[in-house]
Amino acid sequence: MADTTSTALVTGAASGIGRAVAARLAADGARVVCADANAVGLDETISAIERAGGSAAAVVLDVTDRDAVARLVGSADLDGLDRVALCAGIYRATPVDAFSIDDYRRVLEVNLTSSVALLVALVPRLRAAEAPRAVTVSSIHSQFAEAGSSAYAVSKAGLVAATKALAVELAGDGILVNSIAPGFIDTPMAVLEDGTNEHDTAGFRSVYVEHGKLPLGRPGTPEEVAAAASFLLSPDNGYITGHVLVVDGGLTATF
Ligand code: NAP
Fold this sequence. Notes:
single chain, 7 helices, binds NADP nicotinamide-adenine-dinucleotide phosphate, KR_dom, SDR_fam, SDR
C-alpha cells in the first residue's frame, strides 16, 4: 500500500496527536519515520500502522538530545524526506506560587527550541524534495491564557513566530511551513496528575459544554488534527505557508 516516493518524519509519534498524524500520513501513502522518547508507545504506533497496511520505522529519540538528532538527520531512514510533522511536546504547569525555572526551561527546550532546531537541521533534505512541507504543532495557548500556563504559552507563541519566520525564509526553496494550533484534544496530555481526564471534569463541562464556550460542544480527536496535518503536508497544499490553522471546535472564534 505504501507509496515510497514520500517519506515523512513525525515526532511525538508514540501518543496522541503525533500517533494519529503518523497513522494518517501512512494511510496517505507515505513511509513514516516515527520518532519519540517513548519506546513502548512507538512500538504500538508502528504495529497499528503495519496492521493497516502502511509502512513505518521507529526511532527512539529525545528531541532535546542534539547528538541523537544529528544521527537521525544523517540517517538513511530519512532518505527521500518530504513531509515533517513536529508533534512532540510537553505541558508543565508553572504557577506563580510554585514556580520552577527548571520546568520553565524544559518546556521551552522541548516545545520550542528543539522543534525549531530539528526543522532547521532538516532543511538540506527538504531542499532536495519535490514538494517539501512541514508543520509544527503549536496550540491555542499561543493566543489564550490560563492560570499556570506561562511557560507552555510562551513555548507555543514562540513556535508560531518561528514557524512564520521559517516559512518566509524557506519560501524561495519551495518549502511550505505551517503550524496547527489545536484546542482541547482528547489525548493523554489531557489526563491530570490524579488520573482524571480534564475534559471530564465538572469545571470543563460547565464552562465549555453547558455554557457554550466551546461551540462544537466536545473536545476534538487526534484524528481530526491529523486530517488538518495531512492536507497541509500534501501537494494539494500549494499556496499556504506561514499560516496557523486552528483546530479547536470554534473556541477561539468566541474570543
Ligand atoms: P501526548 O499524548 O502527551 O503526546 C506527546 C508525545 O511527545 C508523547 O509520546 C511524549 O512522550 C513525546 N515527547 C515528550 N517529550 C519528548 C521529547 N523530549 N522527545 C521526544 N518525544 C517527546 O500529547 P498530545 O496531546 O498528543 O500532544 C502533541 C502536541 O500537541 C504537543 O506539542 C502538544 O503541546 C500539542 N497540543 C495538544 C493539545 C491537546 O489538547 N492534547 C492541545 C494543543 C496542543 P512521553 O509520553 O514519554 O512524554
